[in-house]
Amino acid sequence: MATPTSAPQPPPPIDETPTWAALTAHRDGLAGTSLRHLFAADPDRAGSLTLEAAGLRVDLSKNWVTAETISLLSELARAAGLEERRDQMFAGTPVNESEGRAALHTALRLPAGERLEVDGADVGADVHIELSRMAAFADAVRSGRWTGATGEPIRAVVNIGIGGSDLGPAMAYHALRPWSDRRLTFRYVSNIDPSALHEALVDLDPETTLFIVVSKTFGTIETLTNAGSARRWLVDDLGEDAVPRHFVAVSTNADRVEAFGIDPTNMFGFWDWVGGRYSVGSAVGLSLMVAIGPDGFDEFLAGMREVDEHFRSAPLEANLPVLLGLLGIWYTNFLGAETVAVLPYADHLARFPAYLQQLDMESNGKGVDRWGRRVGYATGPIVWGEPGTNGQHAFYQLIHQGTRLIPCDMIGFAQATDPIGDHHDRLMANLLAQTEALAFGQDSDDPNRFFTGNRPTTTILAEQLDPATLGRLIALYEHKVFTMGTVWGINSFDQFGVELGKVLASAIEGELPTDTPLAHDASTNAAIAWYRAHRHPVS
Ligand code: G6Q
């Protein structure tokens, strides 16, 4: 059981506080009210529930809330100690209690020269030393000064990593392709399925390919297996001596990097206080920096920093990530929502829902609180989504007319990144029309054509999907997740469920190529026997 470090006396569970009871009564009082009623009753509603900060315009008015809801939810956040825990996180206190670590991803975006002392070390200085090394490397690759072993410039960068060492850079690269150096090709390999590596390498030339192997621990089987096979692909063509010009590593474990055969001088470091799913602003984002250049990466970090500063300083009632988190609590715990859909009206954000899925579900998919007690209320929602308008032609039917409550985050931009004719106006018209139809429905005498409306959405708008805006969106959701985890009293920074997955397969893996007796359950034994009979031996 976790030893509490931040609060010696466990507080009462949050669902036993007077504010929770007040919110339950408030919810009951709102029963029967609809978004139509709420808008009719308050002509200022749209204005008072739309906030602009840190380059983002967030319209909360199409949610099932009143000013009183916001005030009670803010009180709940205060009762849960959100402000204190937020300040502890920014200061480097080990808020990841179960692993005895700080969660200092916000330090990754400190401005140059700003000190942050943790355990006697100036982490701000450490961060900027590493950023400078990354920038020198990224510039060398982009300019062609860093060549492959035969003197050819690099033309393809292959990032090998999984989970937090893949989703962040892969999502961000796809989001920011218009800002990338189009002479370079970027590929992201995560799955141990051989098809993933095969597809990534099938049309690449070893002479012009650079691998970035990203693993915090450098012990993750998928990454090491893919990196080992990539190394063989290279060495078969160019020989052992070529490895240092074609492999760099991003890790916290220099010994394992060296043991794998990558020169530690070609390693970019980060720290144990950077969680995998919070790491895209660290050296884990090296492929992104090569793609968009050090200046673009600076803007990306600056966007995150803007939201960090807003989160640190804005009153809870006007604090964007706090309000998004509190709305999440409202829907999850008081209105029974099990899920949240993230619907970006931007094709470049196709991987953003998958990125948020990890950020949210790995952080808040916990059933035990920070004091070791099993929680008696729902925690992390199921996060999913696809870009609009594609989703409209697929699953939106269920959101409009199904039986479930699905709060949606709609994300859109004022300007296209790749303008063609009137595409962008048409795209945005769809976003706006969807939020209107979901909120206000459509009357019809035909029950099949009747839309109840009263389906909540939050609309998040920004000028353009550029590096700074992507940074802002990431930090917005990071702090939303933190807010929710704090209200639930859980540790959003460990992931023992993921770690279990890392050991489970190893026993069965050893059994597959043998005919040793099996001692699993009957179903698993039979499946292993079938696989043994049908598998192709490893060549
Ligand atoms: C992230 C998780 C997990 C992790 C991967 C890869 O928060 O801990 O997704 O990032 O399992 O781990 P390595 O970077 O150590 O290879």
What are the salient characteristics of this protein?
single chain; five-stranded parallel sheet; alpha/beta; 19 helices; binds glucose-6-phosphate; globular; six-stranded mixed sheet; 539 residues
Gap between N and C termini: 45 Å
Which compounds are bound in this model? glucose-6-phosphate
Beta-strand residue percentage: 5-15%
Radius of gyration: 25 Å
Class computed from helices, strands and strand pairing: alpha/beta
Strands, total number: 13
Helix amount, in percent?
A: 40-55%
Low-confidence stretches: none
Q: Identify the quaternary structure here.
A: single chain
Helix count from the secondary structure assignment: 19
Q: How confident overall, as mean pLDDT?
A: 96
Strand order of the largest sheet: 1-2-13-12-10-11
Q: What summary fits the major beta sheet?
A: 6 strands, mixed
Shape from CA axes? globular
Compose a concise summary of this entry:
With 539 residues, the protein is of the alpha/beta class. The protein has 19 helices and 13 strands.
